[in-house]
Amino acid sequence: DVLMTAWDQTTGRRLWSADTGLSWIYSSVSDGKHLFLHTDNTFCCLDEKTGTTVWKNSLTAVSPFVFVLSGQMVLHINKQDNVADRLYVLGAETKKLDTGSEQRNPGIYILDGADGKLLGRIDWPALTLSNGGGELLCDGPALYATIPESTQAEYPAQTSSLVAFDLTTNKVMWQERVDGEGSNLVKQSSMLI
To answer: Most buried by CB count within 10 Å: which residue of 90, 106, 138, 149?
Structure first.
């Protein structure tokens, strides 16, 4: 299991260690009060001061699909209390059909920051998630996504989709096709770089 440890930055003194119960960690992100971790199907929230587990949730318990989450997790911060109220991650649900083929439902998954429960999904049928997914950037009421448009044989991707979603409706505000793979999204003032 993955052991998380926190140290004081100025003294190097170990503050806490916590066994997450996860066999590996795909990504982690903090809102300043909580540390959010995820593997393919399991999400975990630790209290940053103590390392205690606030909640742990597995998506496989809520669906007959197997979740393949392939992007870094991003947070939506509630401006009133400055904590994460929603988590967003790229992924796809897959399941084997009786015919032997595989059904895939790609999209952006939305989880509750308070308890890790699945709140919904922004459907995106054109999403391929072939080379490890893409990248998300949450900025207030908008979520920006860059997704490689390629097959597994094509790496790096020749083109990508750059999409902006309105988080009040989860609908596309605009979409552009860009050359190459979009990465390291940064929002500065009114520009997305």
So the answer is: 90
